[in-house]
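new request in #modeling-help
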Amino acid sequence: MLSPAESVVLLTGILVACCCALPGCFLLLRRMALLGDAISHAILPGIALAFALTHSRNIMVMLAGALAAGLACVALIQILGRPAGATGGGLPEDAATAVVFPAFFALGVVLIGYVARHVDLDPDCVIYGSIELAPLQELAIGSLRLGPRPLWILGAAALINLLFVTVLYKELKLACFDPDLAALLGFRPRALHWLLVMLVGGTTVACFEAVGAILVVSFLVLPPATAYLLTHRLTGMLVLSVSVGALAAVLGYVLAVWINSNVAGAMGWTAGLLFVCAWVFAPKRGLAANLVRRLRGAAEG
Amino acid sequence: MPDWTLLVVLALLGAATGLVGTFAFLRRQSLLSDTLAHAALPGICLAYWWTGNKSLAVLLTGALAAGLVGSLWHTLLVQTTRLKTEAALGVVLCTFFAAGIVLLSLLQAHAGASQTGLDRFIYGQVAYLTDEQMLVLGAVSLALIATVVVLYKELKLFCFDPDYGQTLGFSRRFLSLLLSTLLAGAVILSLRSTGVVLTVALLAGPAAAARQWSHRLGLCLLGAAFFGASSCIAGALLSFHIPQAATGPAIVLVLSAVVALSIVCGPARGWLWHFLRSWRFRRRVEYENALADLFRLAEAQPEAAGFSLEGVARWQQSPASRKRRVLRALVQRGFIEPAEPHRWRLTHAGLRVARRIVRGHRLWETYLAQNLHLPADHLHRDAEAMEHVFSAETLEELARGLQYPAHDPHGHAIPPAEQEGQDA
């Protein structure tokens, strides 16, 4: 059986998977799959600046700084990546991303070099996170001890994401598949876009505190991509990607314990393996199904 | 001062990544380098695991192999699934990097944390490069630069017109593979100095900056090589003087400043020049409109000596100061002259300009009505836009095509073309 600490780690992983899978689906469908990657790196200077300005180690201050930096990064990418004509030449959108987020990250690394003496933050923990330490970070209000803090934060984030998707399901769906019609019907796809960006930023920030960028990005990209290969329906994709993410968290944890490796890495890698399984064995469009169909065709024809 | 050989190696490295990055930039593959950089990590770990050797050449070979496998998988994913290219990039990046993290943690548990020095690849470091390592980096950089110089023509063709290249016998598949190999080579070069996350900046940054300065590929390549090399040197010097700034981040910050500066004031696509160009165009349209209006007034009342813009519809909305500014500018340029108080007439030079504009306007209206059968009330707005952008050749082509019509659809006379030596 699992010890309490182990179950907290496992539960943290599952919550991260649920948190990320929902907005991840919409990122994938809107062709912004790498935005999570950019945001998760760009939050670093925000954290450093928030600390440098307030000298507070309050988690909410850090999260606010991180969110602001993430949104600034996305805004800058959009300004630079605008099509030529509106503001002069600018850049192709991929190049804008490639130029902006490393600049943020580099600034963050340098800033943290300055404030690191006062705060236990290093770029390492931003990338790998420390999911193993999740049980040790306790949330306490006064003398009331509420248990591991990451569980509370991630639970809240998962709830917000779920609420966002259920309340705005129709609008999101339309904005993904027919943005022109969405604009015509008055659904304001631009506002929705920024809402989605804020949600991804918030999710990234909430998760990274517990697990680091690599797991967040993996769970934003891999489970939705897996689900995308398995179904053509949006509802199915959302449900599947949450399930795949949770499965990856559980199997990854088992793997990490078995070979005694980094837990976040193992969870991300398991998600990758599940994707490969879907790629090869997907019932209708997988590589294996294609091969069988081709062989049959050859045998018949 | 840092060692001068280090600076030379860094300059070569920056030039090589700048050159290769330009082709990736043009192929819209800037983010592929991010994926390749992350995909290299498991390659580095496996190379060390299998050989037990941590010489840079061995590790970089592993990284190159992993990068190529990653780029191949990406191509396969795009070809065999519904995933779009950026989603496929994300899938490769996450899977490989997570595998790398797992391997790294296993290696560190076995061999002791920093002993392997493999973690240097994640953040990059140039401070403790040995002579042998610098030799490897310098040699790879030179090989990349030489390949780009020798195959410049082929790569250029591949970037701009691969289909035409194919018909000339330049294999599309081979060139695509070559470019991927070059890209993976450039990525592993910068891995050691700037690390996994920042490598993408070293490839995309110089190209993005150079693109703002020129529309020509040759000049863009030279610019990218220059920006890459100088940013690497400046970053290294900066980090030498500011101990908190590690070399990789320092290089990327310098490079980002160069990119920002180029985007603001690069002459080819920069913002300042763009605003300047569009401001000058708007001003020219303003002047030409005023001249054309005076011409139309003179047409309507041939006996009057001078005219004012007061009665013209499009000037009624605009403030008096704008009218004064336009008229003053036109007087200064010798296009109009005062006839009586608050009345102007066109000079000889002004008449030529006005005649050309009105001629363009009416010819275009005729064309729209005759060839596109637009109703008469749909013609004016389009002609208003077109009259300012016709070149003399286009205008004559148009007139010839319409067989030199004398009147436009509204019944106005179309002024004849300016003849050599003809007086107005």
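bot summary: Chain A touches chain B through 63 residues (CB under 8 Å).
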